[in-house]
Amino acid sequence: MTTKRMIIVRNGRVLDIKGHRAPAADILIAGDTIAEIGPPGLAAPADAVLVDATDRLIHPGLINAHTHGHGNLSKGMGDRWTLELLLTAAPWISGNRTAEDKYLSTYIGALEMLMKGCTACYDLTVEFPQPTPEGLGACAKAYADAGMRAVVAPMVANISFYEAIPGLLDVLPSALQKEVERLRMAPYEASLTAMRRVLTDWSCCAGCSARTRRCASSCSACTPSRFMPPARSAWAPAAT
To answer: pTM score, two decimals?
Structure first.
């Protein structure tokens, strides 16, 4: 039988949400489970690892309900961009990613969130031209390795930003129009097929379900304007 490592957290203040206070308290942890919360001086095994939480507020993990794991390697590439400029630059700053790149980008973001008190998140990640089990698996493994709980919900669309804005393609110089036309998204049927594969067999994403089910899968629309009928009607039942 494997003995769980015991940890005792002392000298901190534990947030009591219902009571609107934060009294001094100690926390005894067995493995990855809180075994007991008690007043200062709480009994603990002699070999328990001591964590000094002096001047610290201890609270339940925060949840980041909207993050983009793929964007963490792109920080600093732009300044004061509008949403339109960001979407225009997206293929440049987030494209041509290997599975290792996707893992690293997500892992960096996970560690930053943990440092700020977030222990769970909803990640609207993106792959071009459509999501893949391998890419989503890399994201899931990053969260599992960091110790976070996450819902990985890839953003999908069946038309590009340039097609979604009426008249935008028409005003571009002809040379740029040819470049932009290469940025075609996958047909919505292909994206739905890929997502159904992931949703049906999430275990295909290595490092997820085997790691205490820290990660779950979902799917999300990029923006409503980037779905052309009948993709919008087809998307609703697929996302449930």
So the answer is: 0.81
